[in-house]
Amino acid sequence: MKKNLITAIKLLFFLALGILLVWLSIKDLTEEERKAIIISFKKADYRWVILSIVLGVISHLIRAVRWRRLLKPMGYNPSIKNTFFAVLIGYFANYAIPRLGEITRCGILNRYEKIPINKSLGTVITERALDMLIFFILFFITVLTQYERLNNYLQTEIYDQLSEKFSFFSLDHFVGFTLLGILGLIIILFLIFKKKLETSKLYIKTKEISIGFLHGLKSLFKIKNPLLFILESIAIWTLYFFMVYVCFFCFPQTSSLGIEAGLAVLVIGSIGIMITPGGIGLYPIIVQKTLALYFITKATSLALGWISWTAQTLMIIVAGSISLILLSFQKRKNDTIRNSKIKNSR
Questions:
Q1: Euclidean distance between CA atoms 309 and 283, whole angstroms
Q2: What DSSP state is assigned to residue 158?
Q3: Is residue 241 part of a domain?
């Protein structure tokens, strides 16, 4: 009961946060801007949205193939179908509660492929670490290639505002002292409660996950064809890029923007998806702020942000729901076959 209550509170919190961000994104719009957004939605070329959705599905299929490649060195060979379904359902679960998807997709493989959760979770953590590495590489490429444009935005929109709020104290010193204080507090608490922590469920669970992560990390070095693994990783993020970039062609105003603008939206927009479940409410705001750097009107950039976010969200909701239904049918079929075998053996 307590666990369900906590889950419900988390779900309501992130839903409320998303609604708040949606409200913040539209509250200051003038009547003319709202009308312009509606017109933009009506005039958008939705064929590019369909292409974006198709590219998204392909990227998740490649992710499933890459995940299987990590599992094979540990002696597991799940079917591509179940692995693909698990990936889609995992993303679907993340829309409810962040990071729930990682556990969910491992649970599906445990149920249908008998793969221990701690071992599959280890490969997922390894996979996420690799994705973060690629993200940071893309982030630095974006900053290096568009330094002046992004630096002006950070200085005027973020750093100056923070400096005003903390004018009584150096921001650099404040951040440094805060981090040192938190680190010191963690060390002190660990030393005081070390024995109790070692016997706690959280510590034991963390230890199991760490062991699973080490197994996942080892599988990375035992992959039979590492070149294919690297190519699959590049393909996933290339498809992520084109998922965003093809939506630019929905509007004449953004169709002339180059690859650098698409890369900026991908990288900065990804931060919004990391902060809120699926980027609800925040993603369109980030897209609007990013495209403002390329002198795109607020109405067009907000409309593009909402269209891009809606396409990605619908893809996950529909594909995740279909995957759940197909897996339930598969379970019934397997149960029928198993019951039939038991009856025949009698």
A1: 7
A2: I
A3: yes
Residue whose pair of structure tokens reads 């893309």 in the numeric block: 138
Q: Kindly calculate the radius of gyration of the chain based on its CA atoms and give it in whole angstroms.
A: 23
Number of domains comprising the chain = 1
By CB atoms closer than 10 A (0-12, 13-18, 19+), residue 139 is middle
Would you state the structure tokens that stand for residue 230, as one six-digit string?
């690297």
* CA pair distance 290, 300, nearest whole angstrom: 12
Task: Answer whether 286's CB lies under 8 Å from 302's CB.
Answer: no
Could you read off the pLDDT of 15-73 as tens digits, one per residue? 565 566 556 556 666 666 667 778 877 888 899 999 999 999 999 999 999 999 988 88
DSSP 225: -
Both tokens of 231, joined, read: 């190519």
Residue 36 lies in a domain: no
Tokens 């002006």 identify what position?
152
Specify whether the CB–CB gap between 45 and 249 falls below 8 A: yes
pTM of the full structure: 0.74
CA–CA separation, 55 and 249 (whole Å): 15
- DSSP-assigned letters across all residues of 44-73: --THHHHHHHHHHHHHHHHHHHHHHHHHGG
Spatial distance between the Cα atoms of 282 and 279, rounded to a whole number of angstroms: 5
Domain contains 273: yes
Q: For residue 63, which amino acid is it?
A: R
Range of the domain at 83: 44-328
Residue 118 lies in a domain: yes
